[in-house]
Amino acid sequence: MRILSKVFTALIFIFLYAPLVVMIFFSFNSSKSTSVFSGFSLHWYTELLNDSATIEAVKNTLILAVCSAVIATILGTVAAVGIFNMKSRFLKSSVKTVTNIPMMNPDIVTGISMMLLFVFVGKLINMSNSLGFLTILIAHVTFNLPYVILNVLPKLRQTDEYLSEAAEDLGCTPAMAFFKVIIPSISPGIVTGLIMSFTLSLDDFVISYFTTGPGFETLPIRIFSMTKRAVKPDMYALSTIIFLTVLVLLLLINFAQIRSEKKIQLKGE
After folding, report:
1. What is the pLDDT of residue 148?
2. Is 29 helix (H, G, I), strand (E, B) or coil?
3. Are 173 and 78 in contact (CB under 8 A)?
4. Is 173 helix (H, G, I), strand (E, B) or coil?
5. For the chain, which residues score pLDDT lower than 70?
6. Which of 194, 239, 177 is nearest to 21 (CA)?
7. Does residue 76 contact residue 148 with C-beta atoms inside 8 Å?
8. CA distance 233 to 263
9. Any long-range contacts for 80-86 (C-beta under 8 Å, 24+ apart)?
10. pTM of the full predicted structure?
11. Residues with Cβ within 8 Å of residue 242, at least 6 apart in sequence
C-alpha cells in the first residue's frame, strides 16, 4: 500500500507540474514550435521586452493587484475586528454569511452584475464611459475582501482577549493598544490575506473582463485577446518569469516563517 500511495502521489505531482515544466522548457526554444525543440535561445525573452503592449498590460496588472490587495487588506482587517467584537450571535453569523457571498458566487455572475451596476451609476451621473481603472479596482477589492476576513478572524480568536486590557492598564489608549498589541498578534493572518488578495487579483480574468474599460488592459485580458489569433512564445517567457517570481516569494515567506518559529521556540526555552 505504501508503494501504491507513493506512486499515486508522484502521478499527481507529475500531472500538476508537467505543463509548467513544458512551458518553461519551450520558453527557451529558438523557434515558434511547441513540439520540436530547435535549440536553446533567449530570443522570446528579448521579444517580450520589446512588446510594449504586453509590458503595459503587465504594469497595469501589477498596479491593480497591489492597490486592490492593500485596500482589501485594510478594509478586511477592520471588518474582521468589527465582526469579532459583535455581541449578537445572530448578527455575527448573518454578517459572516453575507461576507462569504462574493467568494461563493460564480465569477461570471459577479462580473456581469457589477458591470450593470457601474453602467447604471455612470448613466445617472452622465458619464459617457463609466468603466475604467476605478471600476475594476472596486470589483477586485470586493472579491478580495472575504479572503482577508477569513484569514484575520481565526487569528483574532487565537489572541488573548485580555491582552488589550493589559496594554491599557499599562498606559496605552485603546487605539495604541490596538496598533501595538492586537495588530502584531494578528499580523500572520493579515499578511496571508494580503498575499492571497494580490494573487487572486493578478490571476483574475472573468470579473476584470466585464468591469474594465477600453483604456485599461490587464495581462489576462491581453492573453485572451491574443488567443483569437495565436499565442506567441513570448507569453511562455512571461509566464515563466511570473512563475519563478511567485516561487521565490513563497520560498522567502516560508523561510521567514520558519525563522520566526525558531526564535519563538528559543525564547520559550
Report:
1. 92
2. strand
3. no
4. coil
5. 1, 228-231, 260, 263-269
6. 239
7. yes
8. 45
9. 80/148, 80/149, 80/152, 80/153, 80/156, 81/152, 81/156, 81/178, 81/182, 83/149, 83/153, 84/153, 84/156, 84/157
10. 0.81
11. 202
